[in-house]
Amino acid sequence: MALSTPPHLGVYFSCLLVFMLSTFHPHALICVLPPSFLNMSLCISYAISFLAVIVCIVAYWYSQVYPPCYLVDFCCTEAEGNAVVTLEAFSKFLRTWRSVKESNLLFQERVFLRSGIGEESYAPPRLIAKAEDTNLEDARSETEGLISVAVKRLLQRVGVDAKAIDIVVVNSSLFNPTPSIAAFVVSTLHMRSNVKTFNLAGMGCSAGLVSIGLAKDLLKVHRNSYALVISTENITRNMYFGNSEKSMMVSNGLFRCGCSAILLSSKPSSRGHAKLRLLHCLRTHLGADKKAYDCVHHIEDEEGNPGVSLQFNLVEVAGSALRANILKLARSILPVSEILKVLVSLVKQKVLKMAVKMYEPDFKKAIDHFCIHPGGRAVIDAIGKGLKLSAYDIEPGKMALYRFGNTSSSGIWYALAYCEAKGRLRKGNKIWQIALGSGFKCNSGVWEVLRDIEPSESGRLNPWMSSIHKYPVTKTLEECLAVSSKISSGPATFSKAT
């Protein structure tokens, strides 16, 4: 038998028998081995074949215990038909309110101006038209319209029938009607009666990765299945129209319309055409800390006006949550060289009592693309500084904020869509999605790109395709508009600087 010729299947069992006999009776080898086995080259051939079988068995077992979670494709809506929120339009909208102080109007205009959001984000037209007089039907119209567009485009693009979906996970923090939003999806798409639905509420801006983590765990149990994950937020019924709490006015200038739909799969057949594979999904919850728990809260002011309160310590709490999350995630994603450098610096500090600074690992040696939650310019800058990221690295999050505003849990998907539209996603690249939200939570999702992804292949699924040539922008809205003196002195017409 030639060395390159793989042995017959029976040889595997012969090798296994030899291994078992040699374990208990080493001298039995002489009796069992045929004369041909005395040839060294054949011995090596059989040994390699035996090890290959063991590797295959272990790999099969691992795939059964930990089935892969593939991202087949995803869609982010561009909110067609909704109102475009320019600074001037926002100013006019504020002045349609029945009772609001001029000083509070100017404060909210300043929040918009300094938020890092541009003049192309979207708001529900019914909210702009009716302000305080919006009702439950208006809120339904916003959410159902966004979800319908995202899901139908996604399923049409990937060629998957709605009846083939096995799991539906929806997250919407502040709007949770009855029947649920997940039930609306089942009704609209005429899904099977045994589809498993989950509707997550109150999970904040980090809920997108909470939903991904839940779907991943469900796909482990329900193998060979599709999971549809939908992340959105409703702002029609969640504007703050009061006068007493400035911490509740901040969100008025930050949050905008947005929705993402993601198709996950545990089917082996999805490996060939899927875009990404989920490597890690990690959650960190600081709810035991009262300051962290209270920094983002849905409350009522003293007059009974509801709204979301954002406390001044939000950036500080976000930093603490991110550090706690990184401590757990780093050991799974960093190369050995970086981990060793951290250990060496730790030994120098704690054991040798040397006055040295703790080594800060370089995450860019493990991650190629960073998709930071576009919650606000200050948070993105703080995360970028903490991780020692370049302007290029934080660009997806900043541009998602500039173009679409804070779309809550769907924001990290607009950032990923930016990377895709720029043609950055190449086979083997690693993507780190970082989401922060009330609770207070920091969630991380690490993905591997399975193939080169061309910008043109997503078409209408990617909301950046019609305007990607204009980005990145190098100046913020505050720098582009000559209005600072007008805002500080009183209401005026907002015009672009020449």
Automatic annotation (TrEMBL):
Transmembrane segments: 6-25, 37-62
GO MF entry, a single one: acyltransferase activity, transferring groups other than amino-acyl groups
E.C. designation(s): 2.3.1.-
Pathways per UniProt: Lipid metabolism; fatty acid biosynthesis
GO cellular component, one term: membrane
Top enzyme class: transferase
Short name of one Pfam family: ACP_syn_III_C
This protein's UniProt keywords: Acyltransferase, Membrane, Transferase, Transmembrane, Transmembrane helix
Residue intervals of the Beta-ketoacyl-[acyl-carrier-protein] synthase III C-terminal domain: 365-448
Coiled coil: none
An individual GO BP term: fatty acid biosynthetic process
Residue ranges occupied by any FAE domain in the UniProt entry: 68-351
InterPro entries: 3-ktacl-CoA_syn, ACP_syn_III_C, FAE1_typ3_polyketide_synth, Thiolase-like
Annotated family: Belongs to the thiolase-like superfamily. Chalcone/stilbene synthases family.
Protein name as annotated: 3-ketoacyl-CoA synthase
